[in-house]
Amino acid sequence: MELRQLEYFVAVAEEANFTRAAERVHVAQPAVSAQIRHLERELGQELFDRSRRAVRLTAVGAAVLPHARAALAAVTAARTAVDELGALVRGSVVVGTVTAHDFAMPDLLAQFHAAHPLVDITLTTDESDSLLDGLHSGRLDVAIVSVGAELPAGLAAEVVTDQRIVAAVAGDHPWRRRHSVALRDLPDHPIIALPSGAGIRHQFDRACRESGVAVRVAFEASTPNALAELAERGLGVAVLPESVAVTRPALHPLPITPELRGRLVFAWRVQGPMSPAAKVLIEMARRRLRVGGPA
C-alpha cells in the first residue's frame, strides 16, 4: 500500500469522479484508475461502485476512507514537524523590553541559546507604546511591556509584575508625614515622571485626564531609579513603581488615590504567523513565570 494510492483514493472519494480527481492530484486519469485498481487488489475488495454515472464508495470503501485520511494527515504532520525543526535550528527571534523590569531576560536567553545555539537572537529596548506597535506589526516576536488593567487586543501575555504606582518624595518634603496622596493634590507640585510612551507614564496621564487634573511634569528620566534619584534631591514628586520607592531609605512613598497600578507582562501576538523559535522561547518564558516568578 503506497501513500499515492491513498491520496488518489481520497481524491476520487471526495470528487466522486475519476477525471476530476486526476485533475486535483495533477496526474493523468488512467494513472489514477490504475493505482486504485492496485489498491483494490491488495485489499481484496472493491472500493468504488462504478456502475453509475457518479462514482460512489462501497461499504468497504467507506470503512477505509477515514483511515486513509488519517494516514495522509499523519504524513503531513510529520513533514510540518521536520520543516519546523529545520526553521528552529537556523531561525531567528526578536525580543523587545522596556528599560526597567524585574524579569531575568539574560537567564532566559542563555537557556534558549544553550538549547538552540544556531538561532539568531535580537534584543532591543524601547518604550511600551513602541514595543506594542512592534508586536502588532510583527517587527517583534515577544516583548516585556507595561500595560493597564486590560491587555491590548490581539495579544496574549503572562504577568511579570503587578504593583501599585506611587508618588515618592524626599524625606524633608511637606508630605513626609502623609500616608497617601490624591491626584487632585499633584498640580501644585513639580512632577518627576518617565517619558511619554512609557507604560507607567501612560497610566498616570490617563488617570489625570479622567480626573480632570492638569499636572506639570518638570523632569523626565528614562528609568524608575533615575526618577527616584531626582526625587531624593528634592526636585519634585516622582511617579514610579512602589517596588523602587520602598528600596530607597531617603524617599517617602505615598499610595495614590484613586489607586494606580502598573503591570509588566511578557507578551506576544496571537494573530498572524509565528516562527518556531518564537514559540519555543514563549513556552520557556511561561514556564519560568509560572514556576518561579520573574527572578
From TrEMBL:
Top-rank taxon of the source lineage equals: Bacteria
- UniProt keyword list: DNA-binding, Transcription, Transcription regulation
Q: Which GO terms describe its molecular function?
A: DNA binding; DNA-binding transcription factor activity
Q: Domain HTH lysR-type, which positions?
A: 1-58
Q: Name one GO cellular component term.
A: cytosol
SUPFAM superfamilies registered for this protein in UniProt: Periplasmic binding protein-like II, Winged helix' DNA-binding domain
- A Pfam family that the UniProt record links to this protein: HTH_1
Q: What family is this?
A: Belongs to the LysR transcriptional regulatory family.
Role description? Required for the induction the katG gene for catalase. Involved in the response to hydrogen peroxide.
Output the PANTHER family linked to this UniProt entry.
HTH-TYPE TRANSCRIPTIONAL REGULATOR YBHD (PTHR30419)
Protein name, UniProt field: Probable hydrogen peroxide-inducible genes activator
